[in-house]
């Protein structure tokens, strides 16, 4: 069953997550808080995975797929209206991680997966570019890695090894969510934790 245009992800859905983060005590060192932030990220990645899946299944054409990805991007990357600066920073980290997901999805829809290279090679090239302060190249390499992840290649965090904390590690974190979403594109239930209590 396909998702109608504009319904892959809504402002209301994003806002529900933001409201929840605003209401709760959020400490990234705390497992529940970390899971809440990860669920926020995974939920957006799942929407992107569904768009790509519908595109591959010819449910939506290239133009519609790109419009839908852009729609999700506009919702997720919009400025967050929260007074707590620490929470804004944490959400900003999620937004940064998802930037690469959006670009990779667009690249995949238009060009398909990268023709050569492996996920690890692209991530390593991205890390090298970041070290040289060439962030455009770093993002480009991460995007190519993302197209391979969408195509089914494994993003093996152990093979990648320790990445210096920075934009590349954030983007790879987003691609990890995308990999999970592509393998199991089921929506994260917003009250999932409540059901487990």
Automatic annotation (TrEMBL):
**Which Pfam families did the record assign?**
DUF2150 (PF09920)
Name the chain's protein: DUF2150 family protein
| Source organism per UniProt | Halomicrobium zhouii
């Amino acid at each position: 069953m396909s998702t109608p245009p504009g319904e892959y992800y809504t402002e209301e859905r994003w806002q529900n997550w933001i409201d929840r983060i605003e209401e709760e005590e959020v400490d990234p060192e705390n497992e529940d808080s970390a899971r809440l932030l990860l669920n926020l990220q995974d939920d957006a990645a799942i929407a992107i995975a569904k768009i790509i899946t519908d595109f591959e299944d010819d449910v939506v054409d290239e133009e519609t797929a790109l419009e839908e990805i852009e729609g999700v991007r506009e919702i997720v990357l919009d400025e967050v209206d929260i007074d707590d600066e620490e929470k804004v920073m944490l959400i900003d980290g999620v937004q940064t991680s998802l930037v690469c997901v959006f670009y990779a999805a667009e690249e995949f829809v238009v060009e398909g997966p990268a023709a050569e290279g492996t996920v690890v090679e692209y991530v390593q090239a991205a890390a090298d570019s970041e070290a040289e302060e060439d962030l455009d190249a770093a993002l480009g390499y991460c995007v190519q890695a993302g197209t391979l992840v969408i195509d089914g290649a494994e993003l093996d965090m152990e093979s990648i090894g320790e990445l210096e904390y920075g934009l590349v590690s954030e983007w790879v974190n987003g691609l990890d969510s995308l990999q999970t979403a592509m393998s199991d594109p089921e929506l994260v239930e917003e009250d999932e934790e409540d059901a487990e209590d």
